[in-house]
Amino acid sequence: MKFGVVVIPGCYCDHDCYYAIESVVRKPVDFIWHEETSVKGFDAIILPGGFAYGDYLRTGALAKFSPVMNAIRDFAKKGGLVFGICNGFQILTEAGLLPGALMRNAGTKYVCKFLHLRTETANTPFTNLMEKGRLLYIPIGHGDGNYYADDDTLKRLEGNDQVVFRYADANGNITPEANPNGSLNNIAGIVNEQRNVLGMMPHPDRSSERILGSSDGKLIFESMVHALVNAG
């Protein structure tokens, strides 16, 4: 199997993601330049966090026009695993690969801290090594993480078990106080209907080893490896 980490000008978490795959889960990985028009040879693609194109106009709005995004759309339609983290999540919504949008944080402040996520479903390639209700301790670092979707979209997400992570307190309770950005229903991460595209605002790449404060993020990458092994 082979992972690809997309490199877009302004995104600075590409090396964090590369390290998590190469040195933590120990699988082959290469960078994918944003001007590439093919992702042939890759089994999973990661869109990392950062500020793609400086977040000018709107977060992710310019990155969706990168040539590589057409190849990633085709890759996703064929069932390939696509994982967007923070700015990567924003890009996936702008590109139409995930529903909804990420808006300015409630309070309009950038928030950077560790927090708890509750795993809402184990029925994805990204959470198959976890159980429903599993708490993860993972950091966030964003100013535009306020997830929004219209009522019909939100009902579909909830009804189809597409909400993967929610912001929770240390006891796993979903409360307004545990919500760092105003996201509807405390949503921190979602998958598409095919369940092969995940977007989440928190950073598993910054919590893949205990020395970083938590190794819980490693479970997501290990789940992807497990899914690819079983698919192969």
Structure description:
- This protein has 232 residues and is of the alpha/beta class.
- Helices cover 23% and strands 25% of the residues.
- It is built from five helices and eleven strands; from the N terminus they run βαββαβαββββαβββα.
- The strands form two sheets. Strands 2-1-3-4-11-10-9-6-7 form a nine-stranded mixed sheet, sandwiched between helices. It has a two-stranded antiparallel sheet with strand order 5-8.
- The longest helix is centred in the last third of the chain and has 14 residues, at 218-231.
- The protein starts with a strand and ends with a helix.
- The model has no long low-confidence stretch (mean pLDDT 96).
Give a nutshell description of this structure:
The chain is an alpha/beta fold.
The major β-sheet equals: 9 strands, mixed
Q: How many β strands by DSSP?
A: 11
Helicity level: 10-25%
Strand order of the largest sheet: 2-1-3-4-11-10-9-6-7
- Beta-strand level of the residues, as a percent range? 15-25%
Structural class based on helices, strands and sheet pairing: alpha/beta
Number of helices: 5
Mean pLDDT: 96
SSE topology string: EHEEHEHEEEEHEEEH
Describe the secondary structure blueprint for this structure:
Blueprint: E1 3-7, H1 14-24, E2 29-33, E3 44-47, H2 67-77, E4 81-85, H3 87-94, E5 101-103, E6 111-119, E7 135-142, E8 146-148, H4 151-159, E9 163-168, E10 187-191, E11 197-200, H5 218-231
Parallel strand pairs: 1-2, 1-3, 3-4, 4-11
Antiparallel strand pairs: 5-8, 6-7, 6-9, 9-10, 10-11
